[in-house]
Amino acid sequence: MNESSIKMGERLKIKEKEIINKIAQLESICGQDVGRGIQPLVEATRGGLLKTARSIAEHPKPNIAILTGFFLPYGNPPAPETDGPIGCALLAAGLIRAGISVRIVTDSFCFRTVKIAVQAAGVTAEIPFDIVPVEATKNQQAVSSLLNLWESLETPVSHLISIERPGPSYDGIVRNMRGQDITAYTAPLHLLFAAKNIITVGIGDGGNELGMGNIPKDVIRQHIRHGEKIACIINCDYLIVCGVSNWGATGLLTALSLLRPDWKLAIISGLNSETEFYILESIVKHGLAIDGIKGVPSLSVDNLPFEYHAHMMKMVTQLMNF
Predict the structure, then answer these.
(1) Whether pLDDT at 116 is above 80
(2) Predicted confidence band at 12 (pLDDT cuts at 50, 70, 90)?
(3) In a 3-state reduction of DSSP, which class is residue 209?
(4) What is the CATH number of the domain that holds 33?
């Protein structure tokens, strides 16, 4: 090996290390605690963002199903929360612009909100929606049929990414952050996480979301309010814990732009606070989405004003640049 080849190899190693460090910074920014006591959960899952991004960036033919929708039956009005659909829409739009196949998964109670969010993100292509009914007599069969469909596709689903989707606790009951039973309002989409040959990813912020089974129950019990009751038992391959789940989608897109420079321009073209606000405004106005903590329609997410989210978007996307 000649000297120039050695120097080239050294430069590549340095750049790879810089990228890994930037993704670690991304994970720390997205993992900022906004008052829920999630820092121990963030520490328990550190490295999940890099692993998730690599699994997509290095896959020969990714086909990604994005799952979201957290219905709040005790809200005024009862509606899906603003956290989740926004991240889903941004992630779907960014991946599609980069030429990656995407499909959206949600249940019948959240479908309208999620569809409006995806449209507001600028997705004009015919994107498949997989909708599972909430009614108990139909939903189990619908999940089985969905898995069969995914396996039979010309390009089978490679990844299932859940963003702010509640899952069952140790007793099989799905609960909100207050510990209230919402099982009857939540289709059993957690059953999709048992799929073989699909890489499963969970993005959550409170301990009761799909994928949180990766974290020891005692960690959630000790640090999260109502943790003993709400801790989700569903495992995943990779877990990303964030201050707000939407931030995980932004962080993942940014990480992908670092690992795949050929995707960067496509990703960055729609990843900005203006688009994010338009999605929020659209789902609150037309989709009847509500703030998950306030429980009412509001141009906020998790009781944080949009300016806070815009600042996070700026901090995260700045890391795209070397």
Answers:
(1) yes
(2) confident
(3) strand
(4) 3.90.1640.20
Contacts of 8 (CB under 8 A, 6+ apart): none
* pLDDT, mean of residues 259-287: 96
Q: Are 232 and 184 in contact (CB under 8 A)?
A: no
DSSP-derived pairing of the beta strands 159-163 and 71-72: unpaired
Q: Is the pLDDT confidence value at 20 over 70?
A: yes
> In which element (H, E) is residue 220 found?
helix 217-223
- Domain with 309 in it: 28-318
pLDDT per residue over 273-284, tens digit each? 999 999 999 999
Tell the residue number behind the tokens 């692993």, with chain if given: 51
CA distance 166 to 182: 9
Q: How large is the average pLDDT for residues 252-267?
A: 97
CB count in 10 Å sphere of residue 156:
13
| Number of domains present in the structure of the chain | 1
- Tally: H helices and E strands in the chain: 12, 10
Number of alpha carbons in the 13 Å side-chain half-sphere of residue 12:
6
